Amino acid sequence: MTPENLLLFAGALLVLFITPGPGIAAMVARTLDAGPVNAAIYGFGILLGDMFWFTLAVTGLSALATQLSGFWLAAKLVGVAYLSWMAFRAFWSAWTGARPKPVFKAGSKRSHAATFVAGVAMPLSNPKPIVFYLTLVPAFVPLEAITPATYALMLAMMTVLAVLTAGAYIGGAHRAREWLVTPAVRRGADIVTGLVMTGIAILLLVAR
User: Fold this and answer.
1) Cβ atoms within 10 A of the Cβ of 9, count?
2) How far apart are CA 19 and CA 70, in angstroms?
């Protein structure tokens, strides 16, 4: 594995992480809805899901993915259910000005666990990371040259870039959260959030 290969990998990851997609949209919405801590937990789940796909590609087990249709369906349904709940909360807030009672108490271990599981489910059911790790990465990174040490280094690179990019999105959304206190602004933002979450949920549901 050459330094050039690692730089190509890092550059491709940066593009993947900063390009707006379902994961980023859901993470930003989570920031606006429940704060940066919950969004960070969701982002950590997304990172682990990405690492799963990368590991499948590195170990040559990508063909196994086609044999686990039941597992991917379950992951997809978890992701869709989470996004649908977020959309419902946003629409409810826009309609009534109040938040529906959460399934789990905000800040509780169960709430954090549910957020984490939903985060992991996002890349497992999202075609974007699946195509990237199983198709594009092997095209410009010689998988056969990846040693355990190189694999660990690449995971570290993924972690650093994910933290930096997610931190930028979460930080920006958190600053905007204070501005959204104004009722009229909050109502409009809730409607937009609900529409975005609904659209993403539909895309994940119909994606193959």
Assistant:
1) 21
2) 29
What is the token pair recorded at 55? Answer: 């590991």
- CA trace torsion 154, 155, 160, 162 (10° rounding): 110
Quick check: 112 and 38 in contact, CB under 8 A? Answer: yes
Dump the DSSP string for 144-190: GG--HHHHHHHHHHHHHHHHHHHHHHHHHHHHHHHHTTSHHHHHHHH
Burial 70-107 (b: 16+ CB within 10 A, else e): eeeeebbebbbebbbbbbebbbebbeeeeeeebeeeee
Residue 66 DSSP code: G
pTM, rounded to two decimals? 0.73
Residue with tokens 């909360």, as numbered in its chain: 89
Cα atoms in the 13 Å half-sphere on the side-chain side of 116 = 11
Residue with tokens 């920031």: 31
- Each residue of 15-48: pLDDT tens digit? 888 887 778 888 887 887 778 898 999 999 999 9
Under 8 Å CB-to-CB from 198, ≥6 apart: which residues?
83, 84, 87
DSSP conformation letters of 80-134:
HHHHHHHHHHHHHHHHHSSPPPPSS-TTSHHHHHHHHHHHHHHHHH-HHHHHIII
Structure-block tokens of residue 191 = 């409607």
